[in-house]
Amino acid sequence: MQNEDIKRAEQLVERYPWWGGAHLALVRAKGFEHVSEASRLVALIHPLAAVARREIDVERLTYKSSDDMIDLFLHHGGHRIVAEEGDAEDLSTQNFSDDDDMVSEELAEIYLNQGLYEEAIETYRKLSLVNSKKSVYFAGLIEEISGKMNK
Q1: pLDDT digits (tens, 9 = 90+) for 136-151
Q2: What's the rounded Cα separation, in Å, for the pair 58 and 142?
Q3: Long-range contact list for 86-91, CB < 8 A, 24+ apart?
Q4: Distance of CA 70 to the CA centre of its chain
């Protein structure tokens, strides 16, 4: 330990002579041969005396994985994706039939996997009307599918 830690441990022993943890900290800081007989005795009978002291790896303790960073990003702050000017397609003029009320992302993916691109686009357009929070996401998928159709 550093001199500052030794001074702090000595102050704790002086202020709280009954506290075994302070004596143990002092013994660990200075070593058995440099402390009073009372501190040696208390340190020897302290329940943590047999536990070896290890250095704390601060870098390992504070390391954030990519999953941790994503969790922090999602949990702290109202982040949202906003379309750039001109990216969003105006769907208000589209006329959708009411006979197919059952739309889902899974259905659109099935259409896409089967090569039914127009049906997939139609389903994503309906989904963007139903779920306006994900309309930018659906617009990107529609654009991607349209690019596949034009190839």
Answers
A1: 899 999 998 988 887 6
A2: 47
A3: 87/136, 87/139, 88/135, 88/136, 88/139, 89/139, 89/142, 91/125, 91/128, 91/129, 91/135
A4: 5
Cα separation of 10 and 29, whole Å?
Answer: 9
In whole angstroms, how far apart are CA 116 and each of 110, 112, 124, 148?
Answer: 8, 6, 12, 11
Using DSSP, state whether 138 is helix, strand or coil.
Answer: helix
Q: How many helices (H) and strands (E) does the chain have?
A: 8, 0
pLDDT digits (tens, 9 = 90+) for 42-94: 776 665 665 455 576 778 778 888 888 877 777 776 666 566 666 566 666 66
With both helix axes pointing from N to C terminus, report the angle between 117-130 and 105-113 in degrees, rounded to the nearest 10.
170
